[in-house]
Amino acid sequence: MGVTVQPDKKVRGDFTVKCHEVDSAKRLKPSAFMDMAQEMAYQAASAMRFGYDELIVKNMAWVMSRMRFRFLKAPLWGDEITVLTWHRGAFGPFFVRDFEVLSPRGERLVEATSSWVVIDVSNRRMARPEDILPSDDTACGDFAIETPAGKVTMPRSIQPEYVTTHKVAYSDIDLVGHTNNARYVSWAMDCLDYGERGIKADEVEIVFHHETRPGDEVALYRATDAGQCFVEGRIGETSVFRARFGIN
Fold it and tell me: How far is C-alpha 206 from the geometric centre of its chain's CA atoms?
């Protein structure tokens, strides 16, 4: 896939929504959007010369820590869409990267913000932002969602119910050797009630606490509160991730 760096420092990629990326209502799945966003993030970072190839020679890699996105109007099977992404610079220990999905007419379909860290792949320790981007002359000041993604907290008034346990396997693993971020959203959505027309999740927020690897067994718990559904993955007493879905 080719990308184009625009004068405003946003990076553009064009996609066609494929049949395996949609649900039974032909809507783009949240996990499929995360796959697109991850590919665009890698491509954009490479175009700006701080991508996978530039970091791996230093034994480092990008890892997503948090993400929040809204489907304003879900793209459908066969739609031609444009994905724009840009990084907003460092916010504390995180690098913030935003996304928007546009129709051919320029209508905004999806808006998203994500927070990333860089880790040393040998010891899993975080690198300092200034070691990756000594200056922010590649940053863009625009935002898709103004406030960076925050924490996700399970409702205190509701006891989460155990749903299932997922054993991490080959299909879950990414090029860094741990579970791909989009897979957690798939696990979480598999915990939601599935109706005749699928699951319409207009807003998704997810926070990753601990990486998982092949053989790990992640217990999944669900809680529903005021039109929102929360899913937490745990290994023993350790929280692996938490996700929040706005369901319509």
Answer: 7
